[in-house]
Structures are given as C-alpha cells and as structure tokens.
Amino acid sequence: xxxxxxxxxIGKGVQPGSLQSALKIGxxxxxxxxxxxxxxxxxxxTFKPYECAVQLSCAIREPSRxxxxxxxxxxxxxxxxxxxxDKGFVILEEEDGRGDFVLVDCDQTKAALLRxxxxxxxxxxxxxxxxxxxxxxxxxxxxxxxxxxxELSIRDYKEIFLPSN
Length: 165
Prior knowledge:
Radius of gyration: 19 Å
Oligomer: single chain
Structural class: alpha+beta
C-alpha cells in the first residue's frame, strides 16, 4: 500500500469530533508558546491540507490595566522585555504617551524572530512581515518602522503537537 493510500484510509477513520478537538489543542499550543515567548496573541491559525498558516501579532505582552497586582505585573512585563532583548530583539517605547513597547523592524529583530520560530517549529518558514511607521523616544524626528505581525507556515503538523523543549 502506498503512503498516500494509507493516509487516505487513516483519514477516513478519524471522527469529526476528534479532529475538531485536536485542531483546538493545536491552536492553543501555538498560542501558549507565543504568549510564553513574551507576545500578546496569535491573530489567526488556519489548518490546511499541507500546512498550518499562522499570523502572529508582534504586540509585546503588557500588564493589564485592570490588574489587582499592577506593580508586580509591571515588573514581570519589564523582565519579559529584558528576556526578549537578551535574545536579540530591538524594543523601543512609542512616543504616543501610552507606554506601549514595540519591536523595531530591523535585521537584528527579524533574525531573532526567525530563530525563535525555528527553535519551536523547525519546518516553519516566514511568508511575510507586516510593519507600520512609528516615532520613538530618544530619536527626535527620526521615523522608523515597527513589526506589527509575522505570517508563517508550519509544514510539519507533528511539530505543533509535540511538547516544546
């Protein structure tokens, strides 16, 4: 029996409820990994026959404005940013007065993102980066761009369901 025929036989034996549960687990696995990596959320996860397409928001995780422990949460957020900086990410605070921190769109940050993604999902490849213009503190009138999101494709589904290292 050829591999394609075997996949067909196995696929027909999967119950829809089991498949739906597995996809929810896969989506949650990706979201938890991204959150644990220091970022806010996953914009979209789409399971296709030969890939899992994922759009990751590059918003840096911040403390809730409604937290019962704002001092601790602020310290934890700063610590998480320091970990990202140690991994090679370039992070700046926007000048809009809200205290939002963003990833600077530069070769160093893109290389750090690629490393982070490839460490968890070796078969993944980045399809695109979405950026936007920003003004940052300390730069005066200098314009630069921040990375808003990254779109990637995970080709090996097993990587999604295996525990992370």
